[in-house]
Amino acid sequence: MLVVGLTGNIGSGKSAVARLLEARGVPVIDADLLAREAVAPGTPALAAIAARWGAGVLAANGTLDRAALRKIVFANATEREALDAIVHPAVKALRDEQLAAHRAHGARVVVCDIPLLFEMGLDRDVDVTLLVHAPLEQRLARIERDRGLSRVESLEMANAQLPADEKRVRSDYVVDNDGTLETLRTRVNESWTALEREHSG
Question: Rounded to whole angstroms, how far apart are CA atoms 188 and 201?
Answer without folding.
Answer: 21
